[in-house]
Amino acid sequence: MKNKSIFQLGMFFIAMLMAQPLLANESPMRGNAKFNVVAAVLLIIFLGIVVFLIYLDRKITKLEKEKDQKQ
Fold this sequence. Notes:
Blueprint: H1 2-23, H2 34-70
């Protein structure tokens, strides 16, 4: 439970750091720098997939251990 809350707090701070430049007037995410926007979106999608795969791996490992203990 503690690890989950630390992870969520870390993700919150990362999100706040990423959102801060978006609120500025002369952000690199505005204007003609559309490549930066595409790169940021792809990075967010990739990180989401990686986090989801890690979550699934841990859950499957836990289920396998429970199955082995029952047998």
